[in-house]
Design a protein that fits this description.
Chain A is built from four helices and 24 strands. In chain A, β20 and β21 form a beta hairpin. In chain A, strands 19-18-22-16-2-24-17-21-20 form a nine-stranded antiparallel sheet. In chain A, strands 3, 4, 6, 7, 8, 10, 11 and 14 form an eight-stranded antiparallel sheet that branches. In chain A, strands 9-5-12-13 form a four-stranded antiparallel sheet, with helices on one face. Classes of the chains: A mainly beta, B mainly beta.
Chain lengths: ~425, ~400
Amino acid sequence: MYKYLLLTISLFLLSTCNEDPHQLIVNIYNEEILGVIKDTTLFVIHDTSYFQKSKVNTQFASRLGLGRVENLKCRPIFRFIDYSTLPDSAKIDSAWIKLVSRGSISRGNTLPFTARIYPIISTQFPVWTSNLDSIWIDPDQSIDKGTILSELQISPDDTNGYLFTLNDAGLDLVRTWADSAAIQEENYGFIIDFEMADYIQYFSAVNSGADPELLLKYSFPADTAVYRDTLLANFDAYLYEGDYPRQVDRNYSSSLIVYNSVLFFNFDNFLNQVGGEVTILSANLELPVDRDQSLIDPLYDIGNLVTLNLESEPYETPVEADLSLGFYAILNTWSEDSSHIIVSSNDNRKTFANMIRAQLANQKKPLGFVISIADNADNKSSVVSDEKEQFNYLAFYTSKEANPSKKARLTIEYWIPAKPRL
Amino acid sequence: MKGSFFTIFVYGILISSGHCQSIFSGLENGIGLRQYITTTRGMGMGGTGLALTDSTSLNSYNMAAWRYINNTKINVSLRYIYVSTNLSEQKFSSSTANFGGLQLAIPIKKNRWILGASFTPYSSINFSYILKYQIPNRSYEQNVFYEGNVARSQLGLVWSPHGRFAFSAGLNYFFGAIKDRYYLFFNDPTISDNFYVLEYQFRGPGFGTSAHLMVTNQLSLGGFLDLEPSIEYTLIRRSTITLEETKTLTKTKFPVFAGLGSSYQFYPQWTLSADFAIQNWKKGLNNQKVADNVEGYYQLGFGIEHSHFKGRAKLFLNKFDTRAGFSYSNMGYLIEGTSIKEYAAHLGFGIPFFQGRARLDLAFTGGIRGDKTETIVEETFFRSFISISAGELWFQKVR
């Protein structure tokens, strides 16, 4: 009997345990013991930018560029290879190429320019469909400049789209490609070129939802009816060549012509001042931008500018960034006065804090970050949106800048954790 | 009966991780609230018991008083504690249960040599709380959990050279750990929640002795002395930067702990008792840290018992023991320079069974700790104790 009595009592005691914390309106404990949250700002102590040799794969780009900005020239190329919907006996009477406008980028002047379509003739690039990031050496040698297929005035005001009407030479070429009975000549596609341009006009690319189209009007012998067909481009890409101007006293992060900036911060001084344990709760990077020396795409703005942890030793080349999946913070928010870029105010600041923690854990001092437009970071392209369709460059003031408000700075919120009670 | 012992033991161990949720237990420079429990019988008599003669239950601190047993004894106790805290205009309460202690006595030579072991709570910390902060551009809350305990175990030998006197010497071993956990929670997606843990570990041996003297057939005196144990104190923390665990090992001591008690049987079934125990925590852990919020701990208690009639009882009150008492303690902590005091009333019962060879003891105490007008916070508490004391005729040289 006693056994069961004691069992019951024990179970009763267990069931009445209460471990919930109580909210205290008045704290009777020593505040110093509980730790404290503070924030501080660290200014960049050293910075640089470097060129990253890269080949850009435009296979998944949603835009194609045509035109020139600064010294960068872009020309789109297309291939229409699928004519299976066209009846064998059809006679192509007319053909057009339709392109849908998708923004433009300029230094301010956007005078209309003349665009011409030429056939690509060279066998220098046997199958450019399967090698979309190849380097075309002297591409003009691959273009039949003597055969103009179509000509159109390109104006940025024309936001609806552009319709290139193929001339007889163009029609002949399309008829050849479409004639399944004839001996097939290699279809290298065609290029849209220009002589003079002071801006880049973007067009929607394949698989963008507004794909380049080949519009055909055809008829049959002994049939007075007229038929129409629309073919979508099967392959596209764009050629780009040139560079953009850089100032000596600026650092750059850019796409297409890939430059990355590197920033260093001295965390040692901060840790010495705190004098003990510290944990980073949140961090923000503020990057003042020289907008006059920058080129920013109005459609995509600064896109996915990211900060990556520096992997290589400080001040050494080549510069290597930590490309661990997800270990980057996106900087794509302008400050209220649009003078500097900050880390997006969502999970990115936590991620950025984690990146700093990781560097501190590896005792990598000083802290180093690589500022890159996302696509430049190679395997980053799979985790942030593609930036291949844009040409941007951002000019940052350097650490030598006299005005502190123009220097890159790191603001961190940190917790000096609890001290021992005993 | 062996099955009952086992069951009680297992349940006792299972719930030994629970502690009293007292706001005072988390105060700086201390190892929690001191736990001083002689016996459940004594807890019914104002927390006394050092000098009580008892052939059934085993005293946690005065092993010399075990000389009255004549067969192998075991004593297991459990506690239930309810605390209501009144802090400024705020009130909250909590309740918990925990292990009260375990004693085992094995007579080697009847009424002369006894080997004993005792395991008893020494101090206990358990308090968790939430503080809400508002700083510029940021609001957050901090959840803090203080929890852990320190236990005192003793392996002792009792020698009774004379029918009226006994002496014990024992090797004490103190061990336990306290863990402080701090959590920060932010209602903001830009900032990470975080936590930090500090763990304090204690372990080390000491020497303890006790004595029991029957001055007359009615008057007894008893006392104990725990000399300063040599404690290895380890502070464990995980670096927030390198994430590596660091251990800081230092030597420290717990202060001498001593107690003196007396009991007087002024009528065949009536006994008075009075005890006093003291321990000076004024220097904290002697670890070079300024400890200006700790001071001496002491407890003073008075009690009275009406024992059951050792024969065929007709009156209801003669069938069991009835006890009452009062205690006054200085908790050893200061808030804003004012000592934390505790006042408690005690009530207890003892129900003998197996012809008086075993006993179930119950004790209830209720009281108040702190003074809201002087120390901002006060606690009212209710504690209940239950213990079973029983024995077997084994491991004993029968003469």
